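Annotated sample (chain length 178).
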Amino acid sequence: MDEEIDKILYDAETIQARVAELAARITEDYRGEELTVVAVLTGALIFTADLLRRIPLPLKLDCVSVASYHGAAETSGEVKFDQLSLPDIEGRHVLIVDDILDSGLTLDAIMAKFHKDCGPLSVRICVLLSKRRARRKEIAADYVGFEIENEFVVGYGMDYLEKYRNLRYVGVLAERIK
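Output written by the structure step:
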């Protein structure tokens, strides 16, 4: 799989150092509060696990399964919720954890759904990566691991056609693969 990567943006050590920094900020911001972390499946799984192991606070973990890429390298523009029920977050502080903020469609849809149907006390967003690009929905993350250019990245949970999630680094997928 390594030969299908044009360049490595962030190696495992760099990612883990940044995850530790994010966890320290989140811990400080939520000290004394009850927190529910909602991971956006499937891409945020590895990031969420590493992040949570570094947050020494009592918290609840839940997941939401949504899709907007549907097997393509570009978003379809349609966000589909893939579960029967939403997380129980009424009256709670919520931290949504996602792998990447790209078009803004997915996180905007989750935020709207949570505010409309779930009654959270507050909602913040944490992403490993945020692309520097015009978004289809104007949404910003409260915690960002790294700002990246508008490149198609894989690894550390992120995929292309369900491959590359298990790479320990974040890399740019070779154009010939897409």
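Annotation: The two ends are 14 Å apart (CA to CA).
Annotation: The longest strand covers residues 122-131.
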